[in-house]
Amino acid sequence: MTDASRSGVAAGGAPGSAGRSSWVAPLCWSAVALEGFDLVVLGVVLPSLLDEPSWGLDPATASLVTTAGLLGVLVGALSAGPMADRFGRRRTMLITVVAFSVLSLGCAFATGPWSFGALRFLAGLGLGGVLPVAIALVNEHGRPGRGGSATTILMTGYHVGAVATSLLGIGVIPAFGWQWMFVLGSVPALVLVPMLARFLPADAPATVPAGGTGARPVTRNPIAQLVKDGYLPSSIAFWIASFMGLLLVYGLNTWLPQIMRAAGYGLGAALSQLLVLNVGAVLGLLVAGRVADRIGLRPATVGWFCAATVFLALLAVRMPGIGIYVGVLLAGVFVFSSQVLVYAYISRHYPAHARASAIGVASGIGRLGAITGPVLGGLLLQAGVAYPWGFFAFAAVAALGAVAVLCVRHADAGVAEHR
């Protein structure tokens, strides 16, 4: 077996699938874009749901609805990574995209907060599985030595989806109602799912050896790799960093419009600031990947968390005119790509046969942060102190993320840190 073919099989592809590798990046990018649309849509429709007279929502109750969806994402992330390592990337990706698209469409027909929350939980099971599988695929089929940029470019899809959600929300919700946001977010899956089935490389059996003659077979329990052979301390550090990173992502995407309204901005301006935040996220991802490829994932990730700390704290200062938009843009540049650099670091830190599991578990544990972020924002709003103390709280979270990354060991089990 040649080195190239061996690499393809070890990565989860099947013999003869190399010609489809060029499809992996754009298809995974599209799936992540749909995930981004669906995860951010709740922040866009929340002001309308709070104004829905028959639902009787307040910020605390809305936080429970948000938490239900994020619990589904947590379970999905914890399950999909090991499934992808054990049963194959392609079939796991298809299952997750179909599941979240169909169930998200159902949210448009919810008649109250209980049915809406149940559908968000079920949709979250599929949503949580997309990211670990997509990151594993692009790292396995991308150019060697470009793990940082491969992952950050993939994650621009998330924020393009988020920007599309914000733009559609500004025009669609006042004219047609919040329900149409879920309808429009599900339609692209009608095209994407057949393309995933047709063009993603076929899955190989999970028991194929990971190396040459005499190499150990891929474990039937890839999660075990995360806690053995000296990996446990780094795994814990990654889990903490992911918790902090996703707390920031979901806390800001869910409550930034409401926090800005509490600061005195109108609804239109608050939604525009959410749009600017996610535009900054896309710009940050394009820069972060190149920086990480040049200086290494560890220093880049620490630096990005530190910069996020500074710019989040600055948002607590009320700025006139365009100043607030510049501040929000710069916060977006560093906040969101900090978390993505954590995923890129994980994908380079663990062996290939446990890669999706490592990303999935970190993403799943990180979803506890994703739950905490909206709950924290809701409590601060309920107490009437979300502005300015919410931004100071988020800045402290970013600082803790930097400390966690510093605690990742440079080498585990004799495997040097990949740069």
From TrEMBL:
Record's bilayer topology term: Multi-pass membrane protein
Signal peptide, first to last residue: none
InterPro entries (alphabetical): MFS, MFS_dom, MFS_trans_sf, Sugar_transporter_CS
Keyword Transmembrane: yes
Broad class of the protein's primary localization: membrane
Subcellular location: Cell membrane
Annotated ranges, domain Major facilitator superfamily (MFS) profile: 24-413
Region (Disordered): 1-21
A Pfam family assignment: MFS_1
Residue stretches spanning the membrane: 27-50, 62-81, 93-112, 118-138, 150-172, 178-197, 236-256, 262-288, 295-316, 322-346, 358-381, 387-408
Keyword entries, A-Z: Membrane, Transmembrane, Transmembrane helix
Name this polypeptide is given: MFS family permease
